Amino acid sequence: QLQLQESGPGLVKPSETLSLTCTVSGGSISSSSYYWGWIRQPPGKGLEWIGSIYYSGSTYYNPSLKSRVTISVDTSKNQFSLKLSSVTAADTAVYYCARLVAAAPYYYYMDVWGKGTTVTVSS
Amino acid sequence: SYVLTQPPSVSVAPGQTARITCGGNNIGSKSVHWYQQKPGQAPVLVVYDDSDRPSGIPERFSGPNSGNTATLTISRVEAGDEADYYCQVWDSSSDHPGVVFGGGTKLTVL
After folding, report:
1. Nearest one of A25, A58, A24, A52 to A38, comparing CA atoms
2. pLDDT confidence of residue B66
3. In this structure, what are the phi and psi dihedrals at residue B101, rounded to the nearest 5 degrees?
4. A109: how many CB neighbours lie within 10 A of its CB?
5. Helix/strand/coil for A8
6. Could you give the CA distance from residue B10 to residue A94 in angstroms, rounded to a whole number?
7. SS3 for A21-76, per residue?
8. What is the DSSP letter of B16?
9. CA-based diameter of chain A, in Å?
10. How far is B104 from B98, CA to CA, in rounded Å?
């Protein structure tokens, strides 16, 4: 059974870079037809897609975050990672990683999610 | 960018049918996916590609999509269905294709 697990610091200082890793177990990150993505949810608010990556390294980013986001993949470790630079309190959220089923170019949806990790931006 | 609009809340009595709408420009031309999220938990996919259900999701969950509105229909609502529900599409129409979520609807079972 495929499982995803987020890891990384729970507290980040303003203006610094948030770094998270998602470890995939029970399946290969190099599987075709799947992308891998990051989604976040600020306290009491809705879901916001951050970006997605294919095992080859091809990426899609949310335009509103694109200038600050880098998503990368390490197929040898079956992991993918998120870096979000110049964080502010507005970046405080639960961060989820997820697998996206891809039927390009028609649709993508998240069929498996990690449990999420809370990241607080504060000095 | 593409916008999805959901009502903030919907209330329904147990055993009745809940309908949660998701509005978007010509959304009927897109595939719509729905997620259920209970407090403190990660979202769970309940409907994909407008009306298909993942393994383990009851037949009570269904979803027509046409025109400018997609609808998640939950038949014979149970107390355990109380949750936030989010619709989602893939917006391929812009210069920056990507995932778009609706704002979410809180379903209250009376």
Report:
1. A52
2. 87
3. -110, 150
4. 24
5. coil
6. 25
7. EEEEECCCCCCCCEEEEEEEECCCCCCEEEEEECCCCCEEECCCCHHHEEEEEECC
8. S
9. 43
10. 18
**Low-confidence residues of chain B: pLDDT under 50:** none
User: Which of B84, B90, B99 should be substituted to probe chain A, the one whose Cβ sees the most A Cβ atoms within 10 Å?
Assistant: B99
Q: What residues of chain A lie within 8 A of the CB of B44, using their CB? A: 113
B46-77 b/e (C-beta count within 10 Å ≥ 16 → b): bbbbbbebeeebeebbbbebeeeebbbebeeb
Query: Could you give the CA distance from residue A91 to residue A13 in angstroms, rounded to a whole number?
Result: 11
pLDDT tens column, B78-109: 999 999 999 999 998 778 889 999 999 999 99
Sort B81 into a burial class: Cβ within 10 Å, 0-12 / 13-18 / 19+: buried
- Contact criterion met (CB < 8 Å) for B101 and A115: no
As a whole number of angstroms, the distance between CA A62 and CA A49 comes to 7
Distances (CA, A) of B81 to A8, A76, B58: 32, 40, 11
Q: How many CB atoms lie within 10 A of CB B40?
A: 8
* Contact call for A96 and B42, based on CB within 8 A: yes
